[in-house]
Amino acid sequence: MTFTFRPLDALEDAELLHGWVTHPKAAFWMMQDATLVDVERAYMEIAADEHHHALLGLKDGEPSFLMEYYDPRHRELVGLYEPLPGDVGMHFLTPATDTPVHGFTKAVITAVLARLFEDPGARRVVVEPDVANTAVQRLNEAVGFVAERAIQKPEKKALLSFCTRERFLAATGVAV
Questions:
Q1: What is the distance between the terminal CA atoms of the chain, rounded to a whole angstrom?
Q2: Which of 65, 23, 15 is nearest to 43 (CA)?
Q3: Range list of β-strands (E), the chain
Q4: Distance between CA 17 and CA 45 in Å, rounded?
């Protein structure tokens, strides 16, 4: 599968995102009760933040998933681990669908990591999924992430995990 990316437009894309982030499948996104205005506001804050970015992943020109990346020295993980030069934090969300495509989510995370590693300064991708989200932990492992330890974030207990460019290549065969 081939994907392209475009910057998320907080106002134009809010309705689409609202449906994605409030769906029961997106419980780990922690926006179940968000209103449309809440979603607009959250993504306007990201758009204004030099250390946090949101992109829409497109398949055949249609929005198919959400990707966020951030500088863990300034967002999400401040004080929870010692970041190394070249660390980049990442979140991704595939929306619920009535017609799942086998391998889609793995293709998405592979594309997201390839996109991040296109930046020569990105040395390691950092994720912090909820410790209860075993499905994403298995997916992370399949593309090269190694779990380091559980950490307590304000909103959840998370599994701090890392993926280097080399581990990504070894796991997926994708050279970036």
A1: 17
A2: 15
A3: 4-7, 52-59, 62-70, 87-93, 124-127, 146-152, 157-164
A4: 15
**C-alpha to C-alpha distance for 51 and 73, rounded to whole angstroms:** 9
Mean pLDDT in residue range 143-154: 95
Model pTM greater than 0.85? yes
Written as six digits, the tokens of 173 are: 């065969």
Helix (H, G, I), strand (E, B), or coil: what is residue 19?
helix
Instruction: List residues bridging with 65 in a β-sheet.
Output: 57
Q: Could you give the CA distance from residue 140 to residue 138 in angstroms, rounded to a whole number?
A: 5
The token pair at 167 is 């581990």
Position 156: which residue type?
A: K
Closest CA to 8 of 34, 45, 37: 45
Which tokens sit at 59? 């398949």
Res. 1: pLDDT tops 80: no
DSSP state of 41: H
- Full strand arrangement of the beta sheet holding 87-93: 4-7, 52-59, 62-70, 87-93, 124-127, 157-164, 146-152
DSSP structural state of residue 94: P
Phi, psi of 171 (to 5 degrees): -80, -35
